[in-house]
Each structure stands twice: as structure tokens, then as C-alpha cells.
Design a protein that fits this description.
5-stranded parallel β-sheet, alpha/beta, single chain, 131 residues
Length: 131
């Protein structure tokens, strides 16, 4: 599967911990990430990640483009809901695209863990044809 990893600044450490805990699962898939998040995860885990630009510099839109082209299966986006983001419209557009394309998306650590455990146990089926 193709998985995108994105984290706002205050959630990057949580994303790194998550990626370390699930490195054995993630290494079996094609990984994409916004720039800073991807570099930090790669440095901490050794995982091979295709890095886009930093989120505020267009990385969210690059990930959104992959979603729009149906080139991603899962998005894990650890958001910081308590801090205003200057690129909030891009964030909202990305999440809207996930809904429109029926892309699996997690926006918090607990949902991400559920998705990664399901992936680990081969319990995820991509069904985009159902309305």
C-alpha cells in the first residue's frame, strides 16, 4: 500500500514514536511524507520515505495531488487542533480529498494505531467503488 505520513510541528514527536513502534509494518509499504516530517522519521527509523516539500511550502498540496490521482491508500495526518496553521485551507482541502476519494485517513494517534494494527494483521481492504 501507499501511505502518507504528515504531522504538524507539535505532533512530530508523536509521529516519530508511532513510526518507530510500527517500523516493521511501515517498511513493507511505499511511504510518502511532507518534507520535515519525512526527514525526521527517516533519520529516526531508517525507513525509506519519498519526501515532498514542507507542508506550509506546498507539501500538503503535493500529498493532496497524490490523493486526487488515487495514488495513495492511507493518510496518517497527526494534526494539532489547538494551534492555528497558516496553511489551514490546504489542510482542509487535503482532508476533503480523502473523503471524496474514500482514502483511509487518521488525524489522531489512536485512529492511526487502529489503522496500523489492521494493516499489520492484513485486515484492510480498499473499497472505493461503494457510494
Amino acid at each position: 500500500m501507499k501511505i502518507a505520513l504528515i504531522a504538524h510541528d507539535k505532533k512530530k514527536e508523536s509521529m516519530i514514536i508511532l513510526a518507530k513502534r510500527y517500523a516493521d509494518v511501515l517498511k513493507e509499504h511505499d511511504l510518502y511524507a511532507t518534507g520535515t516530517t519525512g526527514r525526521l522519521i527517516s533519520l529516526s527509523t531508517g525507513l525509506n520515505i519519498t519526501c515532498m516539500k514542507s507542508g506550509p511550502l506546498g507539501g500538503d498540496q503535493q500529498i493532496g495531488s497524490l490523493i486526487a490521482e488515487d495514488l495513495l491508500d492511507i493518510v496518517i495526518f497527526l494534526r494539532d487542533p489547538l494551534t492555528a496553521q497558516p496553511h489551514e485551507p490546504d489542510v482542509n482541502a487535503l482532508l476533503r480529498l480523502c473523503d471524496v476519494t474514500k482514502t483511509i485517513v487518521a488525524t489522531n494517534i489512536n485512529t492511526a494505531v487502529i489503522i496500523l494494527n489492521a494493516l499489520k494483521n492484513n485486515e484492510i481492504t480498499i473499497t472505493k467503488s461503494i457510494s
